[in-house]
Description:
This protein is 47% helix and 9% strand. The protein is mainly alpha-helical and 133 residues long.
Amino acid sequence: MATTSIQNLNKPKDAFEQLEDEEGTRQGFCHIRIQQRTGRKTITTVQGVAPEYDLKKIVRYLKKTWFVPDEYFQAVEPAHRLAFGYGALTWEWRQGIRSYVYPLFIALYYGVLRLTALDSRAAVVHGPKLLQA
Length: 133
């Protein structure tokens, strides 16, 4: 008896293995596993969802991510520097790799704000978000 339990320890356990009962009919369970990895990284596994549900929408809802899009630093910061004379630039701008065509539109918006003295913090921060929406 002790030998069988030791042999069972060598077999890896699959948490999603028991999706059918003894008669072979599928159980009505949906398994959602969210594993914390290093730092902020997680792995979300969803299995057993009925075909009439949209799996992509379920995973999108369960996925918890936060990011700052690259467009913020690649458009708003250079535009702010063009209009107001100060601001952070990433290496692509310092090396002359990126084009100023797109940030010029936001810089024009900033220029109008500056000339009309409407360059409040809210207008500077939220205006480009509305322009890029």
